[in-house]
Amino acid sequence: MTDKPMLILIAGPYRSGSGGDPQAMAANLARLEAAAWPVFAAGHLPVIREWTALPVLRSAGAGPTGPLADQVLHPAADRLLAHCHAVLRLPGESAGADQNVATARRRELPVHHDVSEVPHRTPQESA
To answer: Which domains occur in the chain, in start order?
Structure first.
């Protein structure tokens, strides 16, 4: 158990394995988002890099596979990690998610590989 809510970055494949196909990337994002409720239900606040990076890209007139993507996606995760307390690394090949794990470890943040590893807060702590 933990005494206060943590901001937990959910990391896993987004563009990896998609071949740039928007439907495949949407399916990858849906898999990342499927972990959001269990993290929230454990008393924490989940965050996914794409939730911040994709609006930034759209506001710049770019998309997740364009030339600006690497200048936004990876730095967005790094900036988020400056505020996160842990990472939940979901299965699947992803250089970006591996980079998130490496950054978390350098910052001595816990890295969980299953939602069951995320510490739960008691109900009175979650209120």
So the answer is: 7-126 (3.40.50.10400)
Q: How far apart are CA 123 and CA 43, in angstroms?
A: 8
Question: How deeply is 58 buried, as exposed, middle or buried, from its count of CB atoms within 10 A (0-12, 13-18, 19+)?
Answer: exposed
CA–CA distance, 69 with 15 (Å, rounded to integer) = 10
Strands in 86-89's sheet, in edge-to-edge order, are: 45-47, 7-11, 86-89, 111-112
Q: What is the pLDDT of residues 51-64, one digit of tens each?
A: 999 999 999 999 99
- Residue 75, classed as helix, strand or coil, is helix
What is this structure's pTM?
A: 0.91
- Taking the C-alpha atoms of residue 88 and residue 46, their distance in angstroms, rounded to an integer, is 9
- Closest listed residue to residue 115, CA positions, set 51, 47, 49, 41: 41
